[in-house]
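Researcher: I'm preparing a figure for a lab meeting and need a structural model of a single chain. I don't have an experimental structure, so a prediction will have to do for now. The sequence is pasted below. Please return the structure as C-alpha cells so I can convert it later.
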Amino acid sequence: MKNKFLYLPILGLLLACSPAERPQEDAAASEASAPREPDRYQEYLWCHNGPNYSKESFDASQAYWRQMVEESNVPAFGHFSLFPKFDESNFDRIVGLIWNDKASRDAGWAAYVESGIEEKLQEKFPGVETCAGDGSDELFAVNVYQPRPATVAMADQESTGRIASYQFCTYNEGKEGSDLRPVALDTYGAWLDDYEAKNGATGYNWAYFAPDFDPEASKASDGVPNAYDFIWMNSWASESEESTGMAAYAESGQEIQASFDEIMTCSDPLRYDVEINIRPAAL
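Model: Understood. Here is the structure written out cell by cell.
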C-alpha cells in the first residue's frame, strides 16, 4: 500500500504507560497499524463564466449566494475560490468546499439541493457563472491530511491575498508513503520550525491530498498529469510570504528537497490566488 503516509505510530501513548497500564500487545499492534483519519474532506468544483459575466455581476451574485447560505439550514462548511495565475482552458475559477468529513459532505449537499439556493441564484443572475454540482465530472474530492497547520490560524488571516500551489505527485519505483512521512513530518517540519523561530510565525501550511476519485479516469486541467498518487498543496498568506519562504528554502533546504526527490516525482506547481468566502470553523 503506497499510501502508508497515512499510518502514524502511537509510540507516545505506549511509552507514557507503565507496564501494568500498557494495552495488550495484540491490541497495541492493531492500533499502531490503524490508518490515520483524514483531517477533513474537500471538494474542488470547476466554474465557467457565462455571457453575462462581469466583475460587478459576479461580486453581486456571490454576495446574494452567501446571504442565502447564511439564512439556510445547510450544515456549516468552508468555501473558498481559486483563480489561476496561469493560462487555463478548462475553467475560469475553482470553488473549494471544506467539510469535516465525507458524511458531513453528503448531508451538506443534500441540504443544499433541497434549499433551492442554486436555482434562486441562477434565476436572479442568469448567465453570470455556472459551477459543477454534486455528481458532476468536474467535481474532484480529496481526503486531506494536514499534520502541521499554519502557525497563524486561518481565522486570523486576511480573506484575500493568499497564494496556493498544487503539485501532482507519483511515488518513485520502490517508494511509498512510509518513505515520505519521516522526511515531510520530521525533517521538513524541523526546517519550518527553525525558519519561523528566526523569522516569526507565518500563515504557511502544506497538506497531503489523497484523491477520492480515479485520476486516470477523470478530467484534468492544464498542467496536470494523466496519473498521479497524491497532491501536495502549499499555501501562503501572501505573495511576499511565499517569495521570502521559497528563497530561504532554496538557500538552506536543498538537502531536504533531494530527499523528497528520491521518493517522489511531482509536476510543476500550479499557482492560484485564493479568496476565502466562508471560513471553516475548524481552521
